Amino acid sequence: MILKIKAIFALNKPTAKGIGIAILAGLSVGYLPGELVRYLSEVYPDLRPQGIEDLNQILQYGSTATLLFIGLFITILCPLLEELLFRGVLWYLVEKFTKNTHIIVAITSLAFALMHMEPLHIIGVIPIGIAYGYLRAYSNSIIPCILAHVINNTISMTSAFM
Of 32, 51, 59, which is closest to residue 119 (Cα–Cα)? Predict the structure, then answer.
């Protein structure tokens, strides 16, 4: 049973190199997609991701308890649950039908992006999902993906305060 759970969620011990790549990915992978979304939001203001706008309002005017809860939710819980779902369970299920890493990465990345729902947010999240997918393939573990995702979301959260 434990081996099955470990296989489904790809909870393999990552290498130091995998952790290093995860840190670099987390620090960098969201920058260009974020800039693209900012640019497209200016060009097409009607498509500006409302969820991000709402979050920025909460971050600016929320109570300390609200900020702490949202901060922990977005920086820790979301990356953990999203990676378990997309680079864990969905990856495992798609891999039953194909061993082609590129197809697995494409399907899990698209599903990950679509879960973010808003058109411009989807556009920005697709390259991030692809990066996390190849990180998962390279490391054979979702642990580096979780780390990269936590770092990326933490940068996004802290930039919202600036």
Answer: 51
